[in-house]
Structure formats: C-alpha cells, structure tokens
C-alpha cells in the first residue's frame, strides 16, 4: 500500500547540516530516499521549519526551499507536487510525490508579498504558528492563549485568495476557532492527536476534531510519543486509541498520517524512522478493514489534496 505522510522536518536538519546526504544518511535522518522507497512512501510533505537560531529571517525559508530542490528533488525519481495534475501524474506513474509546506509564519514578518512568493515557489499549505506567538497568532504553548492578530486575519484572507491550505497543528485553541470561522477552505491538522486520549495542549479537543471533520478536513495522526501516551516507552499499538477515538467522532474518512519524523527526539518503539512504516501498516491491517487502512495511510490525504490543490496553469 502507498503511504502519504503529511509532515516531516527533514529540511530543518538539512538547513543545520547541509553536508547531509538525503539518499541514505540513516544516522542523522529519519526520512531518507532509501527508507521512503523501502517503506512505500508515495507522497511526503516536507515542512519548512526554521530552528530558533534561524527564526525570523526570510532568507532561511528560501534556503530551505533551495535545499528541497538540491537535496530532495535531485536525489531520485521524486516529482514535485504543486497541482492536481502533478498529484495524479505521480500516482499514475509510480513516482514518489513531494509537497512543500511552511510551519510557522514568523519569518514572513507580516509581509504578504512573501506569502505570494512562497505560493509561486510551490508551497501549498501553511501552519500559522509553531508553539509560541508570532505576528499572526498565538501558538498552543503561549500562556496568554490569545487568537489571531489583525495582521493574522489579513494573512488568512490572502491564503484563501491564493488557495493555500491552512494547517492548525500548533495553533492556540482561540486562534483555531477564529481561523475556522474565517477560512473559506477546510482546515487540516497535519500532525496532531486526540486530546481525549492523551491530554496535551498540542492535541485536539473533540470539538476541534468534530469541526475539522464537518468541514471535510483531515487530521494527521502523529508519532510524537508524548502526544500518543503519557507514559513511556510508547509502542505502536497506542496509536490505535487515537484512531479509534477519531473514528468514533465520525472521522473514518478524515484520518491520515503525519509522522513528524526528523522533528522528534523520542521515538515510538518499532516506529523509529520512515523505514518502519510496513510494521505500522501490518498493525493497522489486524484491526481495520482494507478500505479503512488504505484511507488512513494514503487515500484520505490523497482525496483531500486532489480536491484542494490548484489546477495546473
């Protein structure tokens, strides 16, 4: 079965360590070309996330995108997904598809021209914050727990105009609800779990999950151990409780995967890197129908992106 992973942080590691080889650098990278091919990852979303020492400078966003081209796209038969047609072409021709997203708009400095530039460069989804506040909104770990700023509302309007997909992972709950009321497109949570199962601020409440489901969005179940289960070590079977809970809320066709590989230090036992995806698929097949498993690991994300990516110009 083909796998669609909605979030990894390979580009952050390549920015900090540009000497790394994306093809098979297995000591320092969780996601490599070799592991993607071994696991059957058909589609991988690569997030542009700036580590703290680079935060706030737009040139590092551009450098990250350059690394995406020079290290990732140049490494093998990988097709850059910017449109519906790109997505279909990759699927029909058995190519690995790579998407670009932005995690945290800090470096855009409130300049909407930068949003348009990123759209021209192929970024197709944007997470407004990481954990803390920026010029657009509060993140989920910001103690004041505020929502969108006026500049943030202008950002939402411009993203809607451009057709950019908006990602609520890391966003404060107040900002989530303000965004949900403003966005013309369904929202996604590229890498978030169910707060009812593991009550962490980074996880979603039942009300948030229900809102995403009703709007026809998708939630990428994430592999970050503290967001899966409160006590470590965390094993793969703990993910099933999150999947079951989202299904119980009507989300069977709204569940995907969002590993957060290369953005996490702790790992789920048996799911330490992208090459272990087969073991997760085998586990899912023991508990769910083939149709459900296909939806969870690829189909639900694929249908969403096929509907919401722009047509090729």
From TrEMBL:
Domain of life of the native organism: Bacteria
Gene3D superfamilies in the cross-refs: Metal-dependent hydrolases (3.20.20.140)
A Pfam entry, by short name: Peptidase_M19
InterPro entries named among the record's database cross-references: Metal_Hydrolase (IPR032466), Pept_M19 (IPR008257)
Protein's recorded name: Diguanylate cyclase
Organism listed in the record: Paenibacillus cineris
């Amino acid at each position: 079965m083909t796998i669609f992973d909605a979030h990894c942080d390979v580009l952050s590691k390549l920015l900090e360590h540009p000497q790394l080889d994306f093809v098979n650098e297995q000591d320092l990278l969780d996601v490599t070309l070799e592991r993607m091919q071994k696991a059957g990852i058909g589609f991988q979303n690569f997030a542009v996330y700036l580590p703290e020492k680079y935060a706030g400078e737009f040139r590092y966003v551009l450098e990250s995108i350059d690394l995406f081209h020079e290290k990732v796209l140049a490494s093998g038969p990988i097709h850059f997904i910017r449109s519906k047609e790109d997505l279909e072409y990759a699927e029909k021709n058995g190519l690995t598809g790579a998407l670009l997203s932005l995690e945290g708009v800090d470096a855009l400095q409130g300049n909407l021209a930068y949003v348009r530039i990123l759209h021209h460069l192929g970024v197709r989804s944007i997470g407004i914050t990481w954990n803390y506040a920026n010029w657009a909104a509060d993140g989920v770990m910001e103690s004041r727990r505020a929502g969108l700023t006026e500049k943030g509302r202008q950002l939402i309007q411009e993203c809607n105009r451009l057709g950019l997909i908006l990602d609520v992972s890391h966003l404060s709950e107040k900002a989530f609800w303000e965004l949900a009321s403003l966005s013309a497109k369904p929202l996604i949570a590229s890498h978030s779990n169910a707060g009812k199962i593991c009550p962490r601020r980074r996880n979603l409440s039942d009300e948030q999950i229900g809102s995403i489901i009703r709007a026809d969005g998708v939630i990428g179940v994430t592999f970050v151990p503290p967001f899966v289960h409160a006590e470590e070590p965390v094993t793969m079977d703990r993910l099933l409780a999150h999947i079951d809970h989202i299904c119980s809320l009507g989300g069977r066709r709204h569940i995907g995967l969002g590993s957060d590989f290369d953005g996490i230090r702790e790992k789920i036992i048996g799911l330490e890197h992208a090459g272990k995806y087969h073991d997760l698929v085998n586990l899912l097949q023991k508990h769910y129908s083939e149709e459900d498993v296909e939806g969870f690991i690829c189909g639900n994300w694929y249908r969403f992106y096929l509907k919401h990516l722009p047509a090729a110009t």
